[in-house]
């Protein structure tokens, strides 16, 4: 498991950035490169240095908070998404929208809120690189927690924003004013923006960030992999790049599969990257944030 794709480009492992070893601007540059090449970037080690005074990691604490919230019935069944042709896309998850200003969330989900801030910082750093480009990220959504209870629960193939303008090419450039992104907007909100740039039904999402707070012992038998359809833009990858591998990532043809093990993070284009959650046999959590054009 984790071997390189024999078809030649090895995008699964090549799309991984180890944040525990590569930090600062170098990490952001590497993430941008992966997104441009493969339409997806997978990050390891986002919370690697985050432990409390008892030596327990933030990810483990957040997992406990999520389990409690699920058992208390705080998560709810979301409405079905529709595809480009208006067809419903089956999904089996339960969700909860985090609110950093909610006193209940502050008291009961503090480690989840800490992870939300970390995802925002990393995603914002990537988004700022295209602040003057075609995608022009200006805001982010609230964080959405999702739970798949096992028993074959899944989310069939879909685009997060199927009505986004596919002709937009990601153009990474420095942002003029990076502080603008920190305004949090609800996903369904009718945020102000240049109406003339929207396609009908376009909700503005352009970049998806998903963090997995599950146990690190997640195995192939547990299922629940994130499947991403990826078309590499540089198929002449070097032998050195092709030889890389990562224990949580595998490839098959032009598909990248990520085990949702604790600490892993995936970023991809919300309006252009087809993805799915494969059937899982154990409880599977994820924390998602979307970065929006308007």
Characterize the structure shown:
By secondary structure, the protein is α+β, with helices and mostly antiparallel strands. Helices cover 21% and strands 23% of the residues. It has six helices and 15 strands. The strands form three sheets. Strands 1, 2, 5, 6, 7, 9, 13 and 15 form an eight-stranded mixed sheet that branches. Strands 8-14-10-12-11 form a five-stranded antiparallel sheet. A two-stranded antiparallel ribbon has the order 3-4. Helix 3 crosses helix 5 (110-128). Mean pLDDT is 78; it is low at 1-10, 171-197 and 234-244.
Q: Give the helix level as a range of percent.
A: 10-25%
**Spatial separation of the terminal alpha carbons:** 40 Å
Fraction of residues in β-strands: 15-25%
Order of helices and strands: HEHEHEEEHHEEEEEHEEEEE
Provide a short characterization of the protein structure:
By secondary structure, the chain is of the alpha+beta class. It is 21% helix and 23% strand. Helix 2 links the parallel strand 1 (16-18) and strand 2 (40-44).
Key structural traits:
alpha+beta, 5-stranded antiparallel β-sheet, 15 strands, about 290 residues, 8-stranded mixed β-sheet
Helix and strand topology:
Blueprint: H1 11-14, E1 16-18, H2 24-38, E2 40-44, H3 58-71, E3 81-82, E4 88-89, E5 94-97, H4 103-108, H5 110-128, E6 139-140, E7 144-148, E8 153-158, E9 205-211, E10 226-229, H6 239-242, E11 249-252, E12 255-258, E13 265-269, E14 275-280, E15 284-292
Parallel strand pairs: 1-2
Antiparallel strand pairs: 2-13, 3-4, 5-7, 6-15, 7-15, 8-14, 9-13, 9-15, 10-12, 10-14, 11-12
């Amino acid at each position: 498991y984790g071997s390189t794709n024999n078809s030649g480009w090895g995008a699964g492992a090549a799309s991984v950035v180890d944040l525990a070893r590569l930090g600062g601007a170098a990490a952001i540059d590497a993430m941008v490169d992966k997104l441009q090449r493969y339409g997806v970037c997978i990050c390891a080690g986002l919370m690697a240095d985050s432990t409390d005074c008892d030596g327990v990691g933030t990810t483990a604490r957040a997992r406990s908070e999520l389990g409690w919230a699920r058992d208390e019935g705080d998560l709810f069944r979301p409405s079905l998404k529709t595809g480009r042709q208006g067809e419903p896309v089956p999904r089996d998850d339960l969700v909860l929208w985090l609110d950093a200003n909610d006193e209940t969330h502050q008291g009961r989900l503090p480690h989840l809120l800490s992870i939300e801030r970390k995802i925002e910082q990393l995603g914002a750093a990537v988004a700022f690189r295209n602040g003057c480009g075609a995608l022009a990220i200006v805001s982010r959504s609230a964080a959405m927690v999702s739970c798949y209870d096992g028993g074959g629960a899944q989310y069939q193939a879909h685009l997060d924003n199927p009505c986004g303008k596919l002709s937009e090419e990601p153009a990474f450039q420095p942002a003029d004013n990076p502080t603008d992104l920190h305004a949090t907007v609800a996903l369904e909100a009718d945020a102000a923006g240049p109406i003339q740039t929207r396609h009908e039904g376009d909700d503005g999402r352009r970049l998806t960030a998903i963090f997995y707070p599950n146990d690190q012992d997640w195995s192939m038998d547990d299922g629940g992999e994130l499947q991403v359809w990826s078309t590499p833009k540089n198929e002449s990858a070097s032998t050195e790049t092709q030889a890389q591998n990562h224990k949580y990532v595998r490839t098959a043809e032009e598909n990248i599969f990520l085990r949702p093990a604790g600490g892993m993070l995936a970023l991809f284009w919300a309006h252009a990257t087809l993805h799915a959650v494969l059937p899982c046999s154990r409880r599977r959590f994820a924390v998602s944030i979307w970065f929006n054009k308007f």
